[in-house]
Amino acid sequence: MSSSQLTYTKFAVAGGTGGLGTFIVKELVAQGASVVVLSRSTDAAAAGATVVAVDYADPSSLATALAGIEVVVSMLSSGSGGASLQPALADASKAAGVKLFVPG
After folding, report:
1. Which residues are CB-contacts of 13 (< 8 A; sequence separation ≥ 6)?
2. CB–CB of 6/32 below 8 Å?
3. Residue 12 contacts residue 38 (beta carbons within 8 Å)
4. How many angstroms separate the CA atoms of 89 and 14, rounded?
5. How far, in Å, CA of 94 to CA of 62, rounded?
6. Sign of torsion, CA 92 24 48 31?
7. CA-to-CA distance for 33 and 83, rounded, in angstroms?
8. Using H for helix, E for strand and C for coil, what is the string for the chain?
């Protein structure tokens, strides 16, 4: 990311505690964004971000976690079945009024 001001300031990153997602979260936080990491585990940690445990099979769980979010970045791993979860995440994003959904 460049050092210019962010257009959006409230992000949710699905898969933000592993692999590439960790770097995305760190950079968003460094740019001054408010970041929520969506995780299936309550034990997950992400420096500078809020971790919210979600059930990707439960639309109300996702909708609650996405309240007030402007951008969802999905870095769900295809190796752990994450690709099959993206449609539900995209639908919940739309229902929550998210402005931009970025599939990984």
Report:
1. 21, 24, 25, 28, 35, 36, 37, 38, 49, 72, 73, 74, 75
2. yes
3. yes
4. 9
5. 11
6. negative
7. 26
8. CCCCCCCCCEEEEECCCCHHHHHHHHHHHHCCCEEEEEECCCCCCCCCCEEEECCCCCHHHHHHHCCCCCEEEECCCHHHCHHHHHHHHHHHHHHCCCCEEEEC
Would the pTM of this model clear 0.90, i.e. be above it?
no
Tokens, residue 92? 């919940």
Written as six digits, the tokens of 72 are 């969802």
Structure tokens at 46: 């992400």
pLDDT by position in tens, the chain (length 104): 455 678 999 999 998 887 888 899 999 999 999 999 998 876 667 778 999 999 988 988 899 999 999 999 999 877 667 778 889 999 999 999 999 999 87
Q: Can you read off the two tokens belonging to residue 47?
A: 């420096």
